[in-house]
Description:
This protein is mainly α. 84% of the residues lie in helices and 0% in strands. It is elongated, with a radius of gyration of 16 Å.
Amino acid sequence: MYDLVWSQLISMDSFQTNNLADNINPYITAPEINAVLSRQAYEEANHSKSYAVMVEAICDNTDLIYEMEKHDDVLREKKMTTSQASTRSLQARRLTRSCFLRWWQTKF
Protein backbone atom coordinates (compact mmCIF):
# COMPACT_ATOMS: atom_id res chain seq x y z
CA MET A 1 0.00 0.00 0.00
CA TYR A 2 2.74 2.49 0.89
CA ASP A 3 4.49 1.68 -2.38
CA LEU A 4 1.49 3.06 -4.24
CA VAL A 5 1.55 6.23 -2.14
CA TRP A 6 5.25 6.77 -2.79
CA SER A 7 4.77 6.16 -6.49
CA GLN A 8 1.91 8.63 -6.70
CA LEU A 9 3.75 11.35 -4.79
CA ILE A 10 6.87 11.06 -6.92
CA SER A 11 4.90 10.84 -10.14
CA MET A 12 2.58 13.77 -9.48
CA ASP A 13 5.29 16.12 -8.20
CA SER A 14 7.43 15.28 -11.23
CA PHE A 15 4.43 16.01 -13.43
CA GLN A 16 3.85 19.34 -11.67
CA THR A 17 7.48 20.33 -12.16
CA ASN A 18 7.25 19.76 -15.89
CA ASN A 19 3.79 21.28 -16.15
CA LEU A 20 4.81 24.52 -14.44
CA ALA A 21 8.06 24.92 -16.34
CA ASP A 22 6.97 23.79 -19.80
CA ASN A 23 3.22 24.37 -20.09
CA ILE A 24 2.39 27.38 -17.95
CA ASN A 25 5.44 29.59 -17.55
CA PRO A 26 5.92 30.26 -21.30
CA TYR A 27 2.51 31.97 -21.44
CA ILE A 28 3.25 34.37 -18.60
CA THR A 29 4.70 37.73 -19.52
CA ALA A 30 5.17 39.27 -16.07
CA PRO A 31 8.73 38.64 -14.82
CA GLU A 32 7.65 38.51 -11.17
CA ILE A 33 5.12 35.79 -11.93
CA ASN A 34 7.73 33.86 -13.95
CA ALA A 35 9.97 34.01 -10.90
CA VAL A 36 7.22 32.68 -8.63
CA LEU A 37 6.43 29.83 -11.04
CA SER A 38 10.11 28.97 -11.39
CA ARG A 39 10.40 28.83 -7.62
CA GLN A 40 7.32 26.59 -7.41
CA ALA A 41 8.79 24.28 -10.07
CA TYR A 42 11.98 24.11 -8.02
CA GLU A 43 9.99 23.20 -4.91
CA GLU A 44 8.14 20.44 -6.78
CA ALA A 45 11.45 19.05 -8.06
CA ASN A 46 12.82 19.20 -4.53
CA HIS A 47 9.79 17.23 -3.27
CA SER A 48 10.38 14.57 -5.90
CA LYS A 49 14.03 14.30 -4.95
CA SER A 50 13.13 14.08 -1.24
CA TYR A 51 10.65 11.30 -1.93
CA ALA A 52 13.24 9.46 -3.99
CA VAL A 53 15.79 9.65 -1.17
CA MET A 54 13.20 8.31 1.29
CA VAL A 55 12.18 5.51 -1.08
CA GLU A 56 15.80 4.47 -1.55
CA ALA A 57 16.30 4.36 2.23
CA ILE A 58 13.01 2.68 3.22
CA CYS A 59 11.76 0.43 0.42
CA ASP A 60 13.07 -2.89 -0.75
CA ASN A 61 11.89 -2.79 -4.35
CA THR A 62 12.53 0.71 -5.64
CA ASP A 63 12.12 -0.25 -9.30
CA LEU A 64 8.55 -1.32 -8.62
CA ILE A 65 7.76 2.08 -7.11
CA TYR A 66 9.33 4.07 -9.94
CA GLU A 67 7.56 1.97 -12.58
CA MET A 68 4.26 1.39 -10.78
CA GLU A 69 2.20 3.44 -13.26
CA LYS A 70 3.11 0.80 -15.86
CA HIS A 71 1.52 -1.88 -13.66
CA ASP A 72 -1.21 -0.08 -11.72
CA ASP A 73 -4.24 0.85 -13.82
CA VAL A 74 -5.62 3.38 -11.33
CA LEU A 75 -2.35 5.29 -11.02
CA ARG A 76 -1.83 5.28 -14.79
CA GLU A 77 -5.39 6.51 -15.38
CA LYS A 78 -5.01 9.25 -12.78
CA LYS A 79 -1.82 10.52 -14.37
CA MET A 80 -3.33 10.43 -17.86
CA THR A 81 -6.47 12.24 -16.69
CA THR A 82 -4.43 14.93 -14.98
CA SER A 83 -2.25 15.37 -18.04
CA GLN A 84 -5.21 15.60 -20.40
CA ALA A 85 -7.02 18.08 -18.14
CA SER A 86 -3.94 20.25 -17.99
CA THR A 87 -3.54 20.20 -21.76
CA ARG A 88 -7.20 21.06 -22.35
CA SER A 89 -7.07 23.82 -19.79
CA LEU A 90 -4.04 25.43 -21.39
CA GLN A 91 -5.49 25.13 -24.86
CA ALA A 92 -8.80 26.64 -23.72
CA ARG A 93 -7.30 29.75 -22.19
CA ARG A 94 -4.10 31.45 -23.11
CA LEU A 95 -2.97 32.93 -19.86
CA THR A 96 -2.25 36.63 -19.98
CA ARG A 97 -0.86 38.70 -17.18
CA SER A 98 -4.19 40.05 -15.96
CA CYS A 99 -5.92 36.68 -16.24
CA PHE A 100 -3.15 34.98 -14.31
CA LEU A 101 -3.08 37.64 -11.61
CA ARG A 102 -6.83 37.27 -11.06
CA TRP A 103 -6.42 33.49 -10.82
CA TRP A 104 -3.48 33.88 -8.45
CA GLN A 105 -5.47 36.16 -6.12
CA THR A 106 -8.31 33.62 -5.87
CA LYS A 107 -5.90 30.84 -4.91
CA PHE A 108 -3.94 32.68 -2.24
